[in-house]
């Protein structure tokens, strides 16, 4: 069953408390102390007026930093909630993620790598929990994206977790991207975590592409941004408006 779980926090509460110190109260207290200092100063050795101005400027800086800290905290909460909302709409959708791990069942898994130049010696290597390796030779390919299927039944692979890498004869490793359906979203302490069919759990920012059936496909296609980057961009635009 596709689900969205929140195991660490209640993100529905976006309201924040105001700054712990009341700015007006602090300012009044400062002025009272400054007046008392003026009244009680030695008439023969009056305090330099520049010292009072310096104290007042320091107080103003403290207030400004306090307000800035409060606004930054609120902005981070809003951005975090936007990220959670975006992730929750992906349940049931198909996405592509960057990964070096697979969680195989008996179903085929679609994967691909991107070549910067032609290659005729690529091989995908799957390594199980016991260190047993299974190699999948890939056909000679031109620069660009090269797709390949991982069929556990044809390869005699048992269900379970596997490390995956694609490398050339020279030992160069390529980033692997895997397509799968989002089964659930878990709201972890470090942000949304997606459970992807054939992959397992991956962080939200590991998404590299949305399929045509994804609600984000039309929105994301023109920019090439991943959803986390898109959230940042939208949030920044909202702050400027």
Number-wise, the strands total: 13
Order of helices and strands: EHHEEEEEEHEEEEEEHH
Shape descriptor reads elongated
The Rg value, from CA coordinates, equals 28 Å
Helix content: 25-40%
Structural class estimated from helices and strands: alpha+beta
How many separate structural domains?
Answer: 2
* Poorly predicted segments: 8-20, 218-223
By DSSP (H or I, 4+ residues per run), the number of helices equals 5
**What kind of sheet is the major sheet?**
8 strands, mixed
Oligomer: single chain
Distance between the termini: 40 Å
Mean of residue pLDDT values: 77
Strand content: 25-35%
Question: Would you give an account of this structure?
Answer:
By secondary structure, the protein is α+β, with helices and mostly antiparallel strands. It has two domains: 1-9 and 22-92 and 182-241, no CATH class; 100-175, Immunoglobulin-like (Sandwich). It is 33% helix and 30% strand. The chain has helices spanning 23-39, 49-88, 152-155, 217-220, 227-240, and strands at residues 3-6, 94-98, 101-104, 109-115, 123-127, 133-137, 144-150, 160-167, 173-174, 177-188, 191-196, 200-203, 207-210. Helix 1 (23-39) runs antiparallel to helix 2. The longest helix has 40 residues, at 49-88. It is elongated. Residues 8-20 and 218-223 have low confidence and may be disordered.
